UniProtKB/TrEMBL annotation:
PANTHER family for this protein: ALPHA-AMYLASE FAMILY MEMBER, NEUTRAL AND BASIC AMINO ACID TRANSPORT PROTEIN RBAT
Protein name in the entry: Oligo-1,6-glucosidase
NCBIfam families reported for this sequence: PRK10933.1
GO molecular function, one term: alpha-amylase activity
Organism in which the protein naturally occurs: Haloarcula pellucida
Protein family membership: Belongs to the glycosyl hydrolase 13 family.
A biological process from GO: oligosaccharide catabolic process
Length: 563
């Protein structure tokens, strides 16, 4: 792999640290186990602080570590101001924060405020109709045999569960153990603001806000479109008061130097800028590009998945680059299949395609997010049975498909599960080729991918041409080249089915990125860009010529040029 010297940083740019940052997402349960109980923990992350610093990342996004009964791996919070025992103590969390800050790495916390756990004291008080908590959640009258409407949970099954103690139905857009908070109630919004402020006062650097497009529901609960991929979503996503709620929440961040990113799986590109800026969050996770490989009925359509066209990806990414004020760049996370298995070739060209996607991620306009294990090219695993799956979304949707007669058995959807399940991202981090991939001394909470003897951090660090070192090089390049952060994006060859090529331009500086996103050789020719004086800055192959024009790009060859 090739790396040439970079340019000096400019002094005439209105900078924001979160625009220049590279973020590394950690799923604590699967990252590193320090005490040998099979579950990753806070001390385990602290042990790897030097690893994160060596990679060069600027921010750690920590998935939930709050007190939780763990119905959805921590995304069901029972106490916003306590740490789950499996992960350690508040002192362990404080030690992690100090370790990261000592290495100039900031920390943002994952915060779930659309819903809580059923075990949260708020819900317990609400179901007892205690004064002040009566309408903290969405409660609706009705007979125990018939839900209030036909809304479906995002995890499968009805979006309503009858509570015998209160004698009413409660709304849960996700698991029944995750009742939705009633954001119409100003006391709920005040309580959330207090939790946010509590963590900011402890010194964190921001939040990733989970599922915030669902905070505002329709004022009533009408039936949803039965033909929608998720029945009722038009009534419980991007509701009428969402801008008001985000404006009010953003006021809690004033006076703090924070980075706030919101997850909005249901937002279209045109909506993103409505929720960002001075009266909103800094950026939004927008998911259109993750849908290029799914069928017309969404991610869990068993009749069509896995096939995608590069031209479709170009169209979506280019629209995001052109129309979103500041994109959040990602191609994998804790809710998605493994990046190289989704967008690359995880068999014949695993290294080449993983480094190509890394080049893509780290040379686009926006803030890039790396999910743990992407830097070594971790891949999807396989699930022999429904019992082997931990993810409640996967289990719920498969059970719905069987109950609705779409399929007769798990075997009929196994290929879909092996392609899409969230559990792929949750297999333990592969540190070395010892038992359990060096993740734990005990039986891991979830099976390690069988390929850990080949794919692991130890072997990647020892190989100067590894995926890990390619990420390290690209992160260093992004830190030193303002054109890769603040430069304009211009797509080249929009209709080419193998090359994804674009320029990044900042005044008189131009960088050209050429990606042969295929397993076949192809010769690059783009008359609109003069390349005679080009220089190779980064390549994932050796012996890449300086001039890309006329070069027969090898399978998944990715090159960054300075023009």
């Amino acid at each position: 792999m090739t790396r040439h010297d970079s340019q000096t940083r400019r002094t005439d740019i209105d900078r924001q640290w979160w625009k220049e940052a590279v973020v590394y997402q950690i799923y604590p349960r699967s990252f590193n186990d320090s005490d040998g109980d099979g579950v990753g923990d806070l001390q385990g992350i602290t042990e790897k602080a030097d690893y994160l610093a060596d990679l060069g990342v600027d921010v750690v996004w920590l998935c939930p570590v709050y007190e939780s009964p763990n119905a959805d791996n921590g995304y069901d919070i029972s106490d916003y101001r306590a740490i789950m025992n499996e992960f350690g103590t508040m002192a362990d969390w404080e030690a992690l924060l100090d370790a990261l800050h000592e290495r100039d790495i900031r920390l943002i916390m994952d915060l779930v405020v659309n819903h809580t756990s059923k075990q949260h004291e708020w819900f317990q008080q609400s179901r007892r109709r205690e004064d002040g908590y009566d309408d903290y959640y969405h409660w609706v009258d009705g007979t125990p045999s018939e839900p209030p409407n036909n809304w479906k949970s995002i995890f499968g099954g009805p979006a309503w569960t009858y509570d015998d103690e209160r004698g009413q139905w409660y709304l849960h857009l996700f698991d029944p153990e995750q009742p939705d908070l009633n954001w119409r109630n100003p006391e709920v919004r005040d309580a959330v603001t207090e939790a946010v402020t509590w963590w900011l006062e402890k010194g964190i650097d921001g939040f990733r806000l989970d599922a915030i497009d669902h905070l505002s529901k329709s004022d009533a609960y009408p039936d949803g479109d039965p033909d929608s991929a998720i029945v009722g979503i038009e009534h419980f996503s991007h509701g009428p008061r969402l801008p008001e709620y985000l404006d009010e929440l953003s006021a809690a961040f004033e006076g703090y130097d924070t980075m706030i990113v919101g997850e909005m799986g249901g937002a279209d590109i045109e909506q993103v800028d409505d929720y960002t800026g001075e009266d909103g969050v800094d950026m939004i996770f927008q998911f259109d590009h993750m849908g290029v490989s799914v069928g017309p009925n969404g991610r869990w359509d068993p009749t069509q998945f896995g096939e995608w066209e590069l031209t479709d990806l170009k169209e979506v990414i280019s629209q995001q680059q052109d129309e979103i004020d500041w994109p959040a760049l990602f191609f994998g996370n804790h809710d998605q299949p493994r990046l190289v298995s989704h967008f690359g070739d995880d068999e014949t060209y695993r290294t080449e395609s993983a480094t190509l996607i890394a080049t893509f991620l780290l040379t686009l306009r926006g803030t890039p997010y790396i999910y743990q294990g992407e830097e070594i090219g971790m891949t999807n695993t396989e699930f022999d049975s429904l019992e082997a799956i931990d993810d409640p979304m996967t289990v719920g949707i498969v059970e719905d498909l069987i109950a609705d007669g779409v399929v007769d058995s798990y075997e009929e959807v196994r290929d879909l599960v092996d392609y899409q399940s969230r559990d792929h991202a949750r297999t333990p981090m592969q540190w070395d080729d010892t038992e359990n991939a060096g993740f734990t001394a005990d039986d891991p909470w979830f099976d390690v991918n069988d390929n850990y003897d080949e794919i692991n951090v130890e072997s990647a660090l020892a190989d100067t041409d590894s995926i890990w070192h390619h990420y390290e090089t690209l992160i260093e390049l992004r830190h030193s080249e303002d054109v890769l952060v603040y430069g304009d994006y211009d797509l080249l060859l929009p209709d080419h089915d193998q090359f994804y090529a674009y320029t990044r331009t900042l005044e008189n500086e131009t960088t050209l990125v050429v990606l042969n996103w295929s397993g076949e050789c192809s010769t690059f020719d783009c008359p609109s860009v003069p390349t005679a004086d080009a220089n190779v800055v980064v390549s994932n192959y050796d012996d890449t010529p300086s001039d890309p024009t006329g070069h027969a790009f090898r399978p998944y060859e990715a090159v960054v040029y300075q023009l």
